[in-house]
Design goal:
The complex is a heterodimer. By secondary structure, chain A is mainly alpha-helical. Chain A is built from five helices and two strands, in the order αααααββ. By secondary structure, chain B is mostly helical. The chains are: A mainly alpha, B mainly alpha.
Chain lengths: 107, 184
């Protein structure tokens, strides 16, 4: 009984693994590629993926990325943090009285 | 440049496709079109339709490459199997049900059957019975037996746990054993 079951199981597995498929047309891949050449792409690629693609395209050594990242970081910080420098206009606004006081006492 | 792309893995090619590279797309299509054709053929049973489905799937990928999100999908083939299967199911919904009896010649039992004829008949009946299985059982069989995917990969494609996949295969085989009694 068990032997018959095993044989049936084996025969079924053999049948499943030997299912026939009509051979694919040899030019299928070529046809797909040719059609794609006339189709526009929807550029909805997130920026991160685009950058990753760019990195894949150009195999630069890691130090180059570190250098570029540091420079970009430097520029960003440089432009966002306000500069505390006194302009000529600001200087005019300094009250004259402030020169008349020293150690909180009137001269 | 082209040689370099041939050596690239699928993820690298997809990143290039997202940047608009036709060369990368060509490499990906040449690498995988036959594999996905085989899967589509198991569903639709005609070469033209299976090729159309594979073509549609790849062109969809080309048109909207942003749908591939590497951080979400572990493997390109697993993700793309799902796309091809969905297109096959859409096709089946739109078209009339597959009637293999009309397509494949039946063996005349009065003639002396030779091995080839018996085999053709067996294949024909097997395909008919597989086509009659519930959708997920059929998919599990196709992926594990015909495509040679591991159970884990097949489970990912179908979107079920490993145990559920094993159960799908067991049930499918039990049904087939019952229906193909005469041939086993």
């Amino acid at each position: 009984m068990s032997n018959t079951q095993d044989q049936r199981e084996q025969k079924l597995e053999a049948m499943l693994q030997s299912r026939r498929v009509e051979p694919v047309s040899p030019d299928l891949a070529e046809r797909i590629v040719r059609k794609a050449q006339h189709l526009p792409q929807n550029q909805t690629v997130p920026l991160t993926q685009w950058v990753r693609g760019l990195f894949t395209e150009f195999h630069l050594p890691r130090p180059a990325y570190v250098l570029v990242s540091t420079l970009i970081f430097g520029f960003v910080v440089g432009f966002t943090i306000p500069q505390y420098t006194t302009t000529a206009d600001d200087a005019d606004l300094i009250p004259v009285q402030s020169f008349l006081y020293a150690d909180e006492d009137l001269l | 440049m082209v040689l370099g792309r041939l050596e690239k893995d699928d993820h690298a090619l997809l990143a290039l496709i997202q940047a608009g590279s036709h060369d990368a797309f060509a490499v990906l299509v040449q690498r995988h079109s036959e594999r996905f054709y085989r899967l589509a053929y198991r569903y639709v049973q005609t070469r033209e339709t299976a090729e159309d489905i594979v073509q549609d799937a790849f062109l969809k990928l080309w048109e909207a490459p942003g749908k591939w999100q590497p951080e979400r999908n572990s493997k390109f083939t697993t993700w793309f199997y799902r796309i091809v299967v969905n297109l096959c199911l859409d096709w089946q919904k739109k078209k009339r049900p597959l009637t293999l009896d009309e397509k494949l010649p039946l063996v005349d039992e009065r003639e002396t059957p030779d091995a080839e004829m018996i085999r053709t008949q067996e294949q024909h009946v097997l395909e008919r019975e597989i086509a009659a299985l519930p959708e997920r059982q059929r998919l599990a069989l196709n992926l594990c037996f015909a495509e040679g995917l591991s159970n884990q990969e097949a489970a990912e494609v179908i979107g079920v746990r490993l145990k559920a996949l094993q159960s799908l295969i067991l049930r499918a085989k039990a049904t087939l054993k019952e229906r193909l009694k005469a041939y086993l």
